[in-house]
Design brief:
35% of the residues lie in helices and 31% in strands. Strands 1, 2, 3, 4, 5, 6, 7 and 8 form an eight-stranded antiparallel β-sheet that branches. The chain has a single domain, classed as Pnp Oxidase, Chain A, CATH 2.30.110.10. By secondary structure, the chain is an alpha+beta fold. Helix 3 crosses helix 4.
């Protein structure tokens, strides 16, 4: 069984600025696997996951068709941790409020880079829409306790087995 995070920890983890991996069912036919793409996102504990994309993109079309999506974020540093959420789309905002667009950009870039990015992509961002998702199902793992137990048992037995 995975060492899961308590609710406050997993919500704080999801609220940290990480690149998320969005997954959505691919309804284009055939034997396609779900579409899985990296995204910038926003989240505040107790709130909704927010993602922005071009209104005509494959991602936007699939999100509209599915009506729900998954998002997974991770910390690859030791000890490994991740949080995955899945739930229904609760709102689609078109157009994106410029303040929301700016806040999302500033979440990932320092102020000077954010300003330059917003100016450089102004025309492109006019085509963007926002999807809001209420997390309904959570999965998480935090191997910190496992790593501590492993380190302690290694210390008790004299370290390495070789």
């Amino acid at each position: 069984m995975l060492p899961s995070m308590p609710r406050p920890d997993r919500e704080r983890f999801l609220a940290e600025p990480r690149v998320g991996v969005l997954g959505v069912a691919d309804s284009r036919g055939g034997d396609r696997a779900p579409l899985i793409v990296p995204v910038w996102y926003d989240y505040e504990p107790g709130g909704e996951v927010v993602v922005q994309t071009d209104r005509e993109s494959i991602k936007a079309r699939l999100l509209r068709a599915a009506g729900r999506f998954s998002l997974c974020v991770q910390d690859e540093g030791r000890p490994y941790r991740y949080v995955s959420v899945e739930g229904p789309i609760t709102a689609i905002e078109d157009p994106v409020d410029p303040a929301v667009r700016e806040a999302l950009t500033q979440r990932y870039l320092d102020p000077e880079e954010a300003r330059a990015y917003l100016v450089a992509t102004e025309a492109q961002l006019k085509n963007d829409i926002l999807f809001r998702m209420r997390p309904q199902h959570w999965r998480s793992a935090d191997f910190a306790a496992f790593a501590a137990d492993f380190a302690e048992s290694g210390a008790e037995t004299g370290g390495d087995a070789g």
